[in-house]
């Protein structure tokens, strides 16, 4: 098998590691007794800088961000190939992933953000469908209301809410992913 430059770029061989922040935090005692606590679940805040949080089988919650910004010489699809490879690597290292929750955005600031979100969501749902992993979007207002008590909380309030729960998010993307994960755990995916 020959390795082309495009393949090397898709695998990230020409770039620095894409994870910019990783925060391991032991889950709070109340989270251990939740139904399905032995399952590995992933929460995502999709975007050029994608926030992620994962609860492993042992209850350890780890979070961070991954940059999906294309390089100077990358084609339009390289962002999505990198995202696919990143999902596969997370699944291999921490999984298998039993369920995925992501922030369901219905309104975007601009056309580019909308296109990027749509491409990432299509990539995520196709990846999950191929592996039989259930996934579900969570409305932005639901996440913010659960984290802060206010459905229209700003970025600073989301970061403060994550810090109040014992996490140390690098930015609002990571804070949103943590909030999604905690919502999924504490409400049993919206069923509680």
TrEMBL record:
Where on the tree of life does the source sit, at the highest rank? Bacteria
Which Gene3D superfamilies does its entry note? Ribonuclease H-like superfamily/Ribonuclease H
The root-end lineage is: Bacteria, Pseudomonadati, Pseudomonadota, Alphaproteobacteria, Rhodobacterales
Q: What is this protein called?
A: Holliday junction resolvasome RuvABC endonuclease subunit
Matching InterPro entries, A to Z? RNaseH-like_sf, RNaseH_sf
Organism of origin: Paracoccus stylophorae
